[in-house]
UniProtKB/TrEMBL annotation:
<keyword id="KW-0408">Iron</keyword>
<dbReference type="InterPro" id="IPR041792">
    <property type="entry name" value="MPP_PAP"/>
</dbReference>
<feature type="domain" description="Purple acid phosphatase N-terminal">
    <location>
        <begin position="70"/>
        <end position="181"/>
    </location>
</feature>
<dbReference type="Pfam" id="PF14008">
    <property type="entry name" value="Metallophos_C"/>
</dbReference>
<keyword id="KW-0862">Zinc</keyword>
<dbReference type="InterPro" id="IPR004843">
    <property type="entry name" value="Calcineurin-like_PHP"/>
</dbReference>
<keyword id="KW-0732">Signal</keyword>
<protein>
    <recommendedName>
        <fullName>Purple acid phosphatase</fullName>
        <ecNumber>3.1.3.2</ecNumber>
    </recommendedName>
</protein>
<feature type="domain" description="Purple acid phosphatase C-terminal">
    <location>
        <begin position="476"/>
        <end position="515"/>
    </location>
</feature>
<dbReference type="Pfam" id="PF16656">
    <property type="entry name" value="Pur_ac_phosph_N"/>
</dbReference>
<dbReference type="InterPro" id="IPR029052">
    <property type="entry name" value="Metallo-depent_PP-like"/>
</dbReference>
<dbReference type="InterPro" id="IPR015914">
    <property type="entry name" value="PAPs_N"/>
</dbReference>
<dbReference type="Pfam" id="PF00149">
    <property type="entry name" value="Metallophos"/>
</dbReference>
<dbReference type="InterPro" id="IPR025733">
    <property type="entry name" value="PAPs_C"/>
</dbReference>
<comment type="similarity">
    <text>Belongs to the metallophosphoesterase superfamily. Purple acid phosphatase family.</text>
</comment>
<feature type="signal peptide">
    <location>
        <begin position="1"/>
        <end position="25"/>
    </location>
</feature>
<keyword id="KW-0325">Glycoprotein</keyword>
Length: 572
């Protein structure tokens, strides 16, 4: 008897692809057809490059519960059978003198069950508070409301759960919310849609992005850093600005208006109280305060599966979502591969080693600043991190890398060490969520726009700016045309959606904000195709002959195209 277990998923995938083609009426390319000729879509001058921050008195940002009732409710994945529920109770304080609330004064309970109004299980969590202190004349201190985190365990896959959170003894329980668990890790079991967004902020553009994203109905959200831009405010001025140092040149410290975090939590609650959001820190989360303390808001407000993934640091961690293993890396902590400060690298190496690609075929990494970037903004800023970590990610066959930081969209051809490589990851920059700093429009290869090697100094790590050692830009710091590894770039705000079909095919779609009212009109769309028979991590990827790669890729490409026509014929 013939074994059809491998053929069936492939047949389903191609039927899915053909259906997409028939419905949309257009051709969607795949990475098998790459590398693609570089394409640039210039900024549309009829659009605004940015917009003002949403004011704190906007109804979406104002507190609308009383006393110790929960607000800012959010979900995050823990393990395949557990999920974190986070919320805030009480009132934050801001002023010259603040007194922290007692986190033990209110309980952290979650009631949940499979039927609305019937909560058959209960769990308890922990609560904490944090302060943001500025011992400078005229600046205001902040202490948070009580922040709760509780983990629900023993959940069944693909199941709806109804829940309330709060303190039943007061009584102060939230309204009922609902979420649906993701499928268990398996090679043909995936989240329905994964939304990817970066550098969101809290502007009118941010509102459009979240509205558009919500319309696309994701089952998981990946937030790749720079969440609130609370540090674009001055505590006394209470107004967001595109350039903090320009607007406040005499500020004794780059202070941060912490109530923006509370406003952001309220703004996001309708979405992230039902859809898990996984975050990683960006530079706008550093938020320095007295005594050299940093990242206090980020570290306190968000629950992430750090302990569950063996990292023990909220700056980097990993998790599974169906057949996808996600690795979230921290660019603003040590990432060295040697020496004493190599905890993150050592953890990453062990995490990648343990990945079973027969269970989670897809391997996706994310961090805030991009390694591959052809825009002038942040050009080669984190070159040191690339030099320390890229080989390890390549060795273990990472499929896709998501980053933000640059306020524009860019998708790369498969690349490794600045060279086109059929086994390199697809790097995608989505730092275009809508923040107040405006969209980036200048490219490093535009005349007069190449940064100097003294520009773009990272907040963490050394400076490793380099001139290219080979290719058309050999001996130069910048290309004179769009680099060959940059497949597509456009200066617009938006978000991305990843739809994984099976162990080899995933559809990536970038949705521009201006297309929110247009059906099936994405700014960029491509099938990302894994080639495990060509790029298995067990094979010596490094130094692999590109001619051999190209031949193998062409073979796979034409086999896939042939199958596509066969399935199309069957469908018709």
């Amino acid at each position: 008897m013939k074994d059809h277990t491998q053929a069936q998923p492939m047949l389903v995938t191609f039927i899915f692809i053909v259906t997409k083609l028939v419905v949309s009426g257009k051709h969607i390319p795949s990475t098998l057809q790459g590398p693609f000729d570089p394409t640039t879509i210039r900024f549309d001058p009829s659009l605004r490059r940015g917009s003002d921050d949403i004011p704190m008195d906007d109804p979406r940002l104002k507190k609308n519960v009383t006393s110790m009732f929960p607000e800012q409710i959010a979900l995050a994945l823990s393990t395949p059978s557990s999920i974190w529920v986070s919320w805030v109770t009480g009132d934050a304080q801001i002023g010259p003198n603040v007194t922290a609330l007692d986190p033990t004064s209110v309980a952290s309970e979650v009631w949940y069950g499979k039927e609305s109004g019937k909560y058959t299980s209960k769990t308890r969590g922990n609560a904490t508070v944090y302060s943001q202190l500025y011992p400078f004349e005229g600046l205001l201190n902040y202490t948070s409301a009580i922040i709760h985190h509780a983990r629900i365990d023993g959940l069944e896959p693909g199941t709806k759960y109804y829940y309330k959170c709060g303190d039943s003894s007061l009584p102060a329980m939230s309204e009922e919310h609902v979420f649906e668990t993701l499928p268990l890790p398996a090679q043909n079991s995936y989240p329905r849609r994964i939304a990817v967004i970066g550098d969101l902020g809290l502007t009118r553009n941010s509102s459009t992005t979240i509205g558009h994203l919500t319309k696309n109905d994701p089952s998981l959200i990946l937030m790749v850093g720079d969440l609130t831009y609370a540090n674009q405010y001055l505590t006394i001025g209470g107004k967001g600005v595109p350039c903090f140092s320009c607007a406040f040149p005499d500020a004794p410290i780059r202070e941060t208006y912490q109530p923006r975090w509370d406003g952001w939590g309220r703004f996001m609650e309708p979405l992230i109280s039902r859809v898990p959001m996984m975050v990683i820190e960006g530079n706008h989360e550093i938020e320095p305060q007295a005594a050299g303390i940093t990242f206090k808001s980020y570290m306190t407000r968000f629950a992430v599966p750090a302990e569950e993934s063996g990292s023990n640091s909220n700056f980097y961690y990993s998790f599974d979502a169906g057949g996808v293993h996600f690795v979230m890396l921290g660019a603003y902590v040590d990432y060295n591969s040697t020496g004493e400060n190599r905890a993150q690298y050592a953890w990453l190496k062990e995490d990648l080693r343990k990945v079973d690609r027969s269970v989670t075929p897809w391997l996706v990494a994310a961090w805030h600043p991009p390694w591959y970037n052809s825009y002038s903004s942040h050009y080669q800023e984190f070159e040191c991190m690339r030099q320390e970590m890229e080989e390890l990610l390549y060795q273990y066959g990472v499929d896709i890398v998501f980053s933000g930081h640059v306020h524009a969209y860019e998708r790369m051809n498969r690349v490794y060490n600045y060279t086109l490589n059929s086994c390199g990851p697809i790097y995608i920059t989505v730092g275009d969520g809508g923040n107040i700093e405006k969209v980036d429009v200048d490219h490093a290869d535009d005349p007069g726009k190449c940064p100097s090697q003294g520009d773009n100094i990272p907040e963490n790590g050394g400076v490793c700016h380099l001139n290219f050692s080979s290719g058309p830009a050999k001996g130069k710091f910048c290309w004179e045309r769009q680099p060959e590894w940059s497949a597509f770039r456009e200066s617009s705000f938006g978000h991305g959606i990843l739809e994984v079909s099976n162990s080899t095919y995933a559809l990536w779609t970038w949705h521009r904000n201006q297309d929110v009212y247009n059906e099936d009109s994405p700014g960029d769309q491509i099938y990302i195709v894994r080639q495990p028979e060509l790029c298995s991590p067990s094979k010596p990827l490094k130094g692999k002959n590109e001619t051999e790669q190209g031949s193998a890729a062409q073979s796979v490409k034409w086999s896939s195209i042939l199958l596509l026509f066969i399935v199309a014929f069957v469908v018709y």
